[in-house]
Specification:
The protein has 18 helices and 22 strands. It is an alpha/beta fold. Strands 6-7-8-3-9-10 form a 6-stranded mixed sheet, with helices on both faces. A 6-stranded mixed sheet has the order 16-19-20-13-21-22, sandwiched between helices. Strands 2-1-4-5 form a 4-stranded antiparallel sheet, with helices on one face. Helix 6 links the parallel strand 7 and strand 8.
């Protein structure tokens, strides 16, 4: 019996880059097949070809034994292929029903939308696949995990049999991720076939039937969870052994470096995003800020680094009031920043790598003498950092916008960690990096911490938070709901806090005792 999906010799050539190099891949009916690879390995390009967003340079696609040509996503949908994107494609002010039927509208005689018929079909799909959702709810009112169910229902509504999940747990709590895996298994048991793209090795081992690893555009191996472990998968992805667990020396925190008091910060819509937050980060300490994306962590980091105006409250760095100062002034006081949005806030994409590596020091010695840039010193610095941080670039004069996302991130990390600092604000510091680069950057952060630097780490990756943090502050709807010493933190407990469960109730859930009724 032919596989439900077969890719034969898929090759994609971009100018100067061979993104996919004769890739063969099969997907069986009812199978969850994980696709693993470092940033820039070619996973997303391959899936974009399958979904009709790119056209292959060479190769063939077969669905149920028949060769097909996929010119667009509509062709993919007609062939029964659907994709759940990492960033949801939903209209917040529409109901679930309106979102699901968008583009596939049910129409009554007279030209009116038949929302009742569509809602009935959504309920049937929900019951069949364990995707509990109210068709009449507005998407803006739904938790992130339920919004993702809506995305899955959209595909099933269009009768997709082959489902592509692209980094599906990126915005979920651990509990929501576990619920998603149950849904994925239920879909597979009912005959749906799933391609699962992720960089989280533990998830691959938990949910997959088969694993294919891509490195630098080629398939380098395949395995099953029973035959693999995280170290094997990491070495297959990177091409060398990787130390996934770093030793953290005992905490020896010193004086306060960063102090925030009663911070109130608004988001871009002028809504309160940081609501009365206070905390301290001390010398030689990593304070991790955990939370599902969108709970104020981004605005908090931007306020601390001068990228966002503070409505009220105070921020002090080494005893100096920095509230309202410019990013340059804060940088000059000994702060470093790895921003969440590398392209908007961390790089000038049209500038060469060498220029980006001195963006915050180009006007100082040794890179400037008066108003004259000392280009020989800029080049010397670039060569050293490219080598030390393994920045994969054709040369230091290459425009940084031409590098992969992971290598753009390495440019920022190299620039920020290679100078004397008191404070490091790291927002999603390893987003888009392969496991080898993650290992290196984690070791550099801990090295800075051990040298006495205070680190404010903002990350949606709980593994990263747990591995690097001495204390963990959990944010929910703009507030810090609890601060937990690392030795007392577990994924389950942090996940409950991230979902808005009060600390006492979360502890009771962990112990299995019923919460006391409110008086």
């Amino acid at each position: 019996m032919a596989p439900i999906l077969e890719l034969r010799g898929i090759t994609k050539q971009f100018p100067g880059v061979l993104a996919n190099d004769h890739i063969d891949l099969t997907l069986e009916q009812g199978e969850i097949h994980a696709l693993l690879g470092e940033n820039g390995a070619g996973k997303t390009t391959l899936m974009n070809i399958l979904y009709g967003l790119y056209q292959p340079t060479e190769g063939e696609i077969f669905v149920r034994g028949e060769r097909i040509t996929v010119h667009s996503p509509s062709d993919a949908i007609k062939a029964g292929i659907g994709m759940v994107h990492q960033h949801f494609m939903l209209v917040p002010v529409f109901t679930v029903t309106e979102n699901v039927m968008l583009g596939e509208e049910e129409v009554k005689p007279g030209g009116f939308l038949d929302r009742q018929k569509a809602a009935k079909k959504i309920r049937q799909i929900s019951e069949q696949y364990g995707l509990e959702v109210d068709p009449s709810s507005y998407v803006r009112d739904l938790p992130v995990g339920v919004q993702q169910r809506v995305e899955i229902i959209k595909l099933l509504y269009r009768e997709a049999d082959i489902l592509i999940f692209d980094e599906p747990t990126a915005v979920l709590t651990p509990q929501e991720a576990d619920e998603l895996f149950k849904i994925m298994r239920s879909l597979a048991e009912k005959g749906k076939s799933i391609i699962f793209i992720t960089h989280k090795l533990r998830e691959v081992l938990d949910v997959s039937d088969r694993i294919t690893v891509i490195r630098r555009g080629k398939v380098v191996g395949g395995t099953t969870p029973a035959e693999a472990d995280q170290n094997l998968l990491a070495s297959m992805m990177v091409g060398r052994e990787v130390d996934l667990v770093l030793e953290r020396t005992p905490l020896e925190a010193g004086e306060a470096v960063l102090e925030a008091m009663d911070l109130l910060v608004a988001d871009d819509r002028k809504q309160v995003a940081v609501d009365g937050v206070s905390f301290v980060v001390r010398k030689g300490e990593v304070l991790g800020v955990a939370g599902v994306q969108g709970n104020g962590q981004t605005e908090l980091a931007e306020a601390v680094t001068g990228l966002r105006k503070v409505t009220s409250g105070s921020i002090r760095l080494m005893g100096n009031e920095i509230t309202g100062l410019t990013p340059r002034k804060i940088t000059e006081l000994g702060s470093a920043h790895v921003p969440e949005d590398r392209q908007a806030d961390g790089l000038v994409l049209a500038f060469p790598v060498k220029d980006n590596l001195v963006l915050n020091t180009y006007y100082k010695e040794p890179y400037a003498r008066g108003a004259v840039i000392q280009w020989d010193r800029v080049v010397e610095n670039a060569k050293a950092l490219i080598r030390e941080y393994d920045i994969r670039t054709p040369g230091y004069d290459t425009h940084v916008g031409n590098l992969s996302g992971g290598n753009q991130q390495k440019v920022i990390v190299a620039r920020e960690l290679s100078r004397p600092i008191h404070l490091l604000v790291a927002s999603q510091p390893t987003r888009g990096l392969d496991v080898g680069s993650i290992e290196y950057i984690h070791s550099q952060i801990l090295k800075k911490r051990d040298s006495g630097v205070a680190v404010l780490l903002v990350s949606t990756e709980l593994d990263e938070i747990l591995q690097l943090s001495d204390r963990i502050a959990v944010m929910y709807r703009g507030k810090i709901v609890a601060t937990v010493p690392s030795e007392e933190a577990t994924k389950e407990y942090l996940g409950l806090l991230m979902a808005g469960i009060p600390p006492e109730e979360a502890r009771q859930k962990m112990s299995g005792k019923p919460a006391q009724a409110a008086a």
